[in-house]
Specification:
Helices cover 78% and strands 0% of the residues. It contains 21 helices and no strands. The termini are far apart.
């Protein structure tokens, strides 16, 4: 852990702070009582629910539903106690500030990283111990009452999944607590953690009812990545001086919007040159491409990965024969125009342009709250569809390269660069909260990245998407007809 600036002497300090926080939590009956009640009675309640569900479905011969219910309730039993970690973590910094006990803690010899990790560990341990105890009580009670015991691998998956969910919730809550100005504000912002985690639980429930337990490892990997990013963000945003000096901030958009306009018109690096299209294309865009070169490289790799993933899925999950006729290059173009997948726009210039421009804009705007995930997903989905169609054409015995040149390249040489460059600038927006720079204000860096994204969107992506939409609607069918007659 040298990359965090921690030495061997740091761990006793972190553990000391964690013990102090745990003692304070155990002295608060408002925290201990709900956890104790949940730990003792909730597994028993779930055991009764499992028996009632088994008896109900047995009347209709649907025993498989009861079998799938047991792992689902096991996951629910593990999830409920870790929700208390959210309450403890939200109180970790802003609660101390309101109780006026934060100053002595910040005056201690602990570094920012040690202070953050100590609070993080203290918020995690108590709910996690309660969760594991609940899982153990539920498994034992279920075995005694029904004779069912979950497979060891499934039990391990549920335990690891519970641990990862707790990591994500605590990491997000500590970020909120260290940046919020009051407990009330922190509790309101907690919905940004509760709602996504509720969606994760719903998704895991579907996986468990379908018994696709191997997919749980992908969920675990995704949660670990999110937890690492949130912890990185927490460490990047944590500053003890700001904790003391930050006051209640009024909602005021005029200041940030004015600063955004200034950065859009007068970008750092082109001082003294008046704003013009010539300056944007000769200087601004060159500086932007220099700043996003790493993000651009990563986006290109993501695009290639999405293309290959689509090809792999085509060979693993081929389409049924009655559907493949639409993708047969020998099919009449008029019949291919009739195909409507529900996710593709009509073959018209305006519809194609609006669809592409809207998807790029919305995914980019969501980049900040998804830490760059949404633009990457759009690139993967679009290039994945291209790869999937190429794979299906190869399965039919046709030449996929001819299909690529006929149906994709005419407009793709404009559309793909527009999407990749825009996604790279959006990826940079999402990476800013987790990549601090010494001496540079976070707000200014975010506003500069937004101004750069607007320039790329308006002066690069928009004209390229217009050209691509016109070619896709009017010229690509002619090129395809020339190739395939």
């Amino acid at each position: 852990m040298n990359f965090l600036g921690l030495g061997r002497e740091s761990f006793p300090l972190i553990l000391t702070l964690a013990r102090r926080e745990l003692k304070d939590a155990l002295r608060d009956w408002r925290i201990v009582t709900p956890i104790a009640i949940l730990t003792i009675f909730f597994p028993w309640l779930m055991d009764i629910a499992a028996q009632l569900a088994r008896d109900f479905v047995a009347r209709y011969g649907a025993y498989i539903i009861a079998e799938r219910m047991y792992p689902f309730l096991l996951m629910v039993v593990g999830f409920f106690p870790i929700t208390f970690s959210l309450v403890i973590a939200l109180e970790s910094f802003v609660g101390e500030k309101e109780r006026q006990s934060l100053e002595p803690l910040l005056a201690s010899p602990l570094s920012d990283v040690e202070l953050y990790l100590g609070k993080f560990l203290a918020s995690l341990l108590l709910p996690l111990i309660a969760s594991f105890c609940e899982i153990a009580i539920y498994v034992i009670g279920l075995f005694l009452s029904t004779g069912y015991s979950p497979p060891p691998l499934l039990l391990l998956q549920v335990v690891i999944l519970t641990f990862c969910e707790a990591l994500v919730m605590v990491a997000g809550a500590v970020v909120i607590s260290s940046t919020a100005t009051s407990v009330r504000a922190a509790n309101l912002l907690a919905s940004f953690i509760i709602v996504p985690m509720a969606l994760v639980v719903q998704g895991v429930s579907i996986i468990m009812f379908w018994a696709h337990y191997s997919v749980l490892w992908y969920v675990v990997a995704a949660l670990v990545m999110v937890a690492v990013l949130l912890m990185r963000m927490g460490l990047a945003l944590f500053n003890r001086e700001h904790l003391l000096t930050r006051q209640v901030e009024r909602f005021n958009l005029s200041g940030p919007l004015k600063r955004l306009y200034e950065l859009f018109v007068h970008r750092p690096g082109v001082e003294g040159k008046p704003f013009s299209l010539s300056r944007v294309y000769r200087y601004d865009l060159m500086l932007i491409f220099r700043d996003i070169k790493l993000a651009l490289l990563l986006t290109c790799l993501i695009a290639i990965g999405g293309l290959l993933l689509g090809v792999i899925y085509a060979f693993r999950y081929p389409l049924p024969p009655q559907f493949l006729r639409y993708f047969n290059p020998d099919t009449k173009l008029e019949r291919m125009r009739e195909l409507n997948l529900g996710i593709l726009p009509p073959l018209q210039t305006r519809a194609i342009f609006l669809h592409n421009f809207r998807s790029l804009t919305l995914s980019s705007l969501l980049s900040l709250i998804t830490l760059g995930l949404m633009p990457a997903m759009v690139i993967i989905l679009n290039l994945g569809m291209v790869g999937f169609f190429l794979g299906e054409v190869a399965i039919m015995g046709q030449n996929p390269w001819i299909f690529l040149m006929a149906f994709v390249l005419p407009h793709g040489i404009f559309e793909v660069p527009a999407a990749v460059i825009t996604a790279a600038t959006a990826l940079r927006i999402g990476a800013i909260p987790v990549s601090p720079e010494a001496g540079r204000d976070l707000r200014d860096r975010l506003l500069l990245s937004l101004a750069d994204w607007l320039k790329v969107l308006l002066f690069v992506a928009l004209p390229l998407l217009l050209i691509a939409a016109f070619i896709e609607a009017n010229l690509t069918p002619l090129v395809a007809g020339w190739f395939y007659g």
